[in-house]
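Journal club side-thread
Mid-discussion, someone asked how the predicted structure for our own chain would compare to the paper's figures. Pasting it here so we can look after the session.
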Amino acid sequence: MQIIRDHKFITACVILAIIMIGLVFHAAFAVSPEDIQDRENAIKETIQERALQCYVIENAYPESLAYLEENYGLTVNKEDYLIVYDLFAENQPPQIKVIYQGGKQ
């Protein structure tokens, strides 16, 4: 009978350990709303800086996000983020919206 009780105890400990490891991994890789907002803001600021750089060099804001990618070295994670780049006039800064699409977490 002692062996059966020891086996149940060991099984319970293993299950508990697996659950604890899962919780640790979840906490380590979870993205908080504040993290998402910070990342969105950082991406938006980077795009604004590259657009301004283009304006200073070419005397016009770029017509599209693709232009910044091709000519100013901008790279955007389009899998996880939707970027809305709206240019009203070439002498006005573009309206930029960055939206997290809930990609890999």
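Post-session note: DSSP finds three helices and two strands in the chain.
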